[in-house]
Specification:
This protein is α+β, with helices and mostly antiparallel strands. The chain contains 13 helices and nine strands. Strands 2-3-7-6 form a four-stranded antiparallel sheet. It starts with 6 loop residues before the first helix and ends with a helix. It binds flavin-adenine dinucleotide. Flavin-adenine dinucleotide binds next to strand 1, strand 3 and helix 13.
């Protein structure tokens, strides 16, 4: 791959980033996955424990600043490189990517929309993982329909007082801050014009004092996506200074900040899905060559070959769609439809491949001793995050019409 010298790359300060760098990063991560993650993932996933030690190692690789510009201490990786890393890690354990992915989306909001003072304050703390976090958009009564959120921020001199509840927030317990979507004007029409984004820490980084108004609720129990915490967060009389915490310094832009990161967010989910689809294929192909029925490996039965053929084709198509969207993103081209297609197709491929891998394994696919039952539990989340696949198809169709008016 040629060095990226596009304007987008230059803006991010990573124009001299080369193919050799990319190979080196992927190589280091591959070896780490083999050495540290593969031997432990089954146990940790089943026990649903937060992987503290692996998180410390990910900090050392700079993964918490992977997509942040070098000028703020990040690695400044291109989306295409980042997507390859995410796919690689997801082959071993998709949950690990959730720990740094929504954190990086929080960082991207600050880098893209924050004031220079906010960037200089928050980003160096984010890239080291000193403060880790995620995105707090969803509420008990509003997920897809984000304009229906109720968390409210009321101006009070130089600060805002925030009250409300968020749910399903990844990294909500183990993280130290979230990018918090709120309403600052309840009467705005359309409602999105009255929404704002705050960087909301649990502890004031300067004083080390805990904000009493930021409360962490219970850790939500889930089908899969184990290891990483998903939590309910409650804000009551939670007061934040405007200059440091209201992203961009002005209210009213929060909705656009939330949806503005969706292209990259969808490429990320597509990459996670590619990892799951690929692992399911690898597990199925390997098992089919060793398991024998009626005197021959099941890989020689045509019914199994049909499955493997479909799984391999889906995986490759998902990889290509994801690469295509990431390439367009890196080139600064419009890629909302491409990212939506990649996310939609790759996530459905992950679900289909996980199911087929389970069938190829027969009864053993249902056993907790084989990785395919985990892939089967992880894959459906890919159809929900970053815009459900129902919405994805609607968005793709709308963009199709917009780009091809008659
Ligand atoms: C494990 C996990 C981790 C998560 N992490 C985070 C996080 O870190 N931060 C965060 O903010 N949120 C997070 N979420 C929340 C996630 O983003 C929402 O669940 C998602 O946006 C869907 O919202 P909902 O659950 O309220 O479903 P709803 O919006 O209630 O949708 C229900 C169903 O209706 C469909 N639907 C809704 N509107 C339409 C429409 N107009 N047309 C057609 N179909 C429609 C949906 O596709 C879906 O099938 C997480 C969720 C899970 C499960």
């Amino acid at each position: 791959m040629a060095p990226d010298t596009t304007p987008a790359a230059r803006d991010r300060g990573d124009a001299d980033y080369t193919a050799t760098d990319e190979c080196a990063i992927l190589d280091v991560i591959s070896r780490w996955l083999e050495r540290e993650v593969a031997p432990r993932v089954m146990q940790m996933e089943h026990d649903d424990v937060y992987p503290h030690e692996l998180v410390e190692q990910m900090k050392e690789f700079g993964l918490f600043g992977a997509t942040v510009s070098q000028r703020y201490g990040g690695l400044g990786l291109r989306a295409s490189t980042y997507a390859r890393i995410v796919a690689l890690i997801s082959e071993q354990w998709m949950s690990l990517t959730g720990i740094f992915n929504s954190h990086l989306m929080m960082a991207a909001i600050v880098e893209k929309h924050g004031t220079e003072e906010q960037r200089e304050y928050w980003l160096p703390r984010f890239v080291t993982g000193e403060i880790r976090g995620g995105l707090a958009l969803t509420e008990p009564d509003a997920g897809t329909d984000l304009q229906g959120i109720r968390t409210r921020a009321t101006a009070d001199g130089d600060s805002y007082r925030i009250d409300g509840t968020k749910t399903w927030i990844s990294n909500g317990i183990e993280g130290g801050a979230v990018a918090l979507l709120v309403k600052t004007d309840l009467d705005a029409t359309p409602p999105r014009r009255g929404m704002s984004m705050f960087i909301a820490p649990k502890v004031d980084p300067d004083t080390g004092r805990r904000h009493p108004g930021f409360r962490t609720g219970r850790r939500l129990e889930k089908l899969g996506y184990h290891g990483i915490d998903s939590a309910e967060l409650t804000f009551e009389d939670y007061t934040l200074d405007t200059r440091r915490h209201l992203v961009g310094g002005q209210p009213g832009r929060g909705f656009y900040m939330a949806v503005g990161g969706l292209e990259l967010g969808r490429i990320n989910v597509a990459a996670r899905s590619v990892g799951i689809a690929r692992r399911a294929l690898d597990e199925a192909a390997a098992y089919a060559q060793t398991r024998k029925t009626f005197g021959k490996p099941i890989a020689e039965h045509q019914a199994i070959q049909l499955k493997l053929g479909e799984m391999a084709t889906r995986t490759r198509a998902a990889e290509l769609l994801t690469e295509d969207a990431a390439r367009a993103y890196d080139a600064g081209e419009r890629c909302d439809m491409e990212a939506g297609m990649a996310k939609y197709f790759a996530s459905e491929s992950a679900v289909a491949n996980a199911m087929e891998a389970m069938r190829v394994h027969g009864g053993y696919g249902y056993s907790r001793e084989y990785p395919v039952e985990r892939l089967y539990r992880e894959a459906p989340l890919m159809c929900i995050g970053e815009g459900t696949n129902e919405m994805q198809r609607i968005v793709i169709a709308r963009q199709l019409i917009e780009r091809n008016p008659v």
